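Lecture 7, part B: from sequences to assemblies.

Below are the input chains for today's worked example.
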Amino acid sequence: MRSVRAWFLRYALQLVVLVLVVASMYALYPNFRVEATLERLIPLGVIAAGLAVTMIAGEFDLSIASMAAFAGALTVVLSGLGLILAVIIAVVACTLLGMLQGWAIAKLGINSLVFTVGTLVLIRGATWLVCGGLSISMDDFTASDIFLGRFLFLSPLSGTALAILIGLGIFLARTRWGRELYALGSARQEAIAAGVRYKRGMVVAFGISAGCGAVGGALTSGLSGSAAPSALESMLVTGIAAALVGGIALAGGRGTMVNVFLGFAIIATLSSGLAGMGLKAFVSQLFTGIFLLLIVLAEYVIRRVSDDARRRRTKRLGDAPEPVPLPA
Amino acid sequence: MTTTLPTPTQFQERAGVRRAINRVRTSALPILIIAVFLVASLLVPQFLTVGTIRAIFLATAITGIIAAAMTAITISGNLFSLGVTATVVFSAMIYFWTGEATGSMWIAALGAILASVVLGLIQGFIVGLGLNPVVVTLAAGAIIYGATAIITGGEVVQAHSRELALFATFSPAGVPLPVIVLIVFAAIAWFLTEHTRLGRHLHLLGANRETARNSGISPMFTTIWAFLAFSVGLGVAAVLQASQTLQVQADNFPDLTMNVVAAVLVGGTAVTGGDGSPVRSVIGALFIATITQIMVLVGIPQGTRLFVLGLVVVALVITLHLLRKATTR
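Predicted structure of the full complex, as structure tokens:
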């Protein structure tokens, strides 16, 4: 019982916001169906998950949206081999690229924000090259029919995404390599001194990030049967917003896949609800921005208040005489 | 003198090597640009013409001004602002509206800069409280973008008065006004960051936040100053951009933010703060514009251009990083 309460308290802010958003969507728009929101797990949910993994490890992967577009282009180009195989090849290739990126970052000891600004442009350029500068589409339009099945409230796409999120959650919380990412994100020097392998951590984090981006991009292209050189550009900002609204700390070391899912659900409910009401995409951008700002401000206020409370407590305890200063 | 000292000369040698590497690091980019210019003027026939050089400098002007301004934020240890595009579009819109309403391009420019400054000061205050600058500016960018799009209904805002284009078309002695503004702005930014007390505060805050606080520098005050400088530059750039295109739409200039960030990084300013210079950021912007222009002249398609540009940025950033590491260790 206690752990359930702790769980709710831990995600209280996000849960309250989510309930408010869902309720207001139902109130404003009677035809709203919350389960339709799950379809946005591809690409938004998985991209937010990928960003979250690097943020937890104390790094930042700006190249993830470019990687998603690249995987999408690869999928369409390779779709002659069979769609599933094409998706798998694209995801594996991108994951390897991401691992290479993580290895380079660790090897050079470079700030990942700096490095991935470069690869953001580089991989976007590679996407243009693969597409030949044009929007491309698959020859076989019926190929994407395999994605149209439905099991309860899940489609094959949202099911895959949900499985990835759950798998990542277990990986981060229960495996040694996953725990090491938290250690690298919260106290890097201490973690390395304690024997955590920094290079392996970076390879794992950036591999996962690129893999998640690739799944998002490849399945999006698989469903629509097309890819464009400038596709999914906005997913970087929306993905970051989802992860942060969910409560992943940009400073590293804090957050779980539950945070990612809640953040995703808030942003996706908002945008699908507003889109359903016939409002344009920029209205949901406005609300995304406001939510992001409000949530970081709320967390800031909570931190300040709890810091003050702790200081007052320690002051009361500290009525005992001050420790004698050591002679200089 | 050194020979008479009994201390091992190894230490001094190492210091000398460090100084040499530092000199390489600060002069590498200018040398590289000169080399690129020389090679290009030999190999690319249309390169050494007034038209091309003018195009390169014009392309540098907007990103260069914003990059120089953003350097203040980066030096102060607050990373980047990711709300560049949205603010430029918003200020451009204000420029057109106040221009149409008052009929004066000066009042319009003032209005646009004022709009940018107000937005910048709000963000500076929030960041000064201790919130992450990337998140705050990202959120602010989304809000400004959304607000701009809602106000305009997503439609194109156009300027009907030709006078509003004068800022872009006026070119005394053949030098376009945006380029003059770039040079003046970079000079002011250089003076402010290198030769004033405020500039030192920026550097110290970025190098070591705790030490800065303990020596009586207010992080809030200094951060607000950095954002003030940034938003003035952003407003000026928005006016120049607006008078160049004479129309603006909410989703214009999607690449601007990343181009500015790339220019700052290629210029060699440290993302961790405390080290950098606005002039170097301008040179970074100039370098990117030069490479792009050469590829356009040679007829390389856009995809390959992006790819090559990405390669160049990655290579330069890695080189600068390795050189910095060699000097600090």
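Note for the exam: Chain B is about 75% helix and 0% strand. Keep this in mind when comparing with the next example.
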